[in-house]
Design goal:
Number of helices: 7
Number of domains: 1
CATH architecture: 3-Layer(aba) Sandwich
CATH topology: Rossmann fold
Structural class: alpha/beta
Radius of gyration: 16 Å
Helix content: 25-40%
Length: 197
Amino acid sequence: MIEILLLRHAPTQWNAAKRIQGRTDVPLSAEGLERAAGWRLPAAAADWPVLSSPLGRAVRTAEAMGLGPAPFQPLIEMDWGRLEGLRLDEIRARGGTGFAANEALGLDFRPEGGESPREVGARALAGLSALDRDTVCVTHKGVLRALFARALDWDMRGKAPVTLRDGCCHRLVLREGGVLSLETPNIPLDAEAATRG
C-alpha cells in the first residue's frame, strides 16, 4: 500500500479565461506563480519524492513550492485534441446535440483528436502502480478527475461525488492490484495548514 498526494498546478491565464489547455504548454500566470509560492505540503509528506506532469505549469508549480519535481509522463494532462484553446461554452454552442451526446458518455467522452477520461485514468493509474513509496504528484484537473472517477467508482455522468477545490491536495491510497481509494480530499496547501500536518 502506498499513499499518493495529488495536487493540481497553480493558475494560468488560460485558466482565468476558462480556456481548455490540455497538452498546450501554457505557463503559470504571475498570480499563479505567487499563489504556488505560498503553498506548502502537509508536514507528513515533507520528505516524499515529487513527480510532476512534464508540462511547464505543473513543473513550475512544484518548483515555486520549493520542491524538486521529476517529470513523469503518466501525469500529463488529458489530450483535448482540436478543442484546446476553446472555452467549454463555445464548444457546447458550436457542437450542438452532437457534442452533447459525446459529453453524455462520461468516462468515454472523446474530443476529436484527443483521448477519453477512461484512457487518462488508465495511463495515470498504470504509472502510479509502478511506484514503490509514498509520493507527491503535481498534475492537472483532467488527471485528478479521471483518478477520482476510479477511486470513487464514478462514471463521470452527472455531478462529481466530491468537489475538487483549488489550492488543495488530495490523499489517495493505492493498494495491491491497482485498487485506488480516496482517503482525504481538499487538504489546504496554505502554509498554516501545512504546519498542522
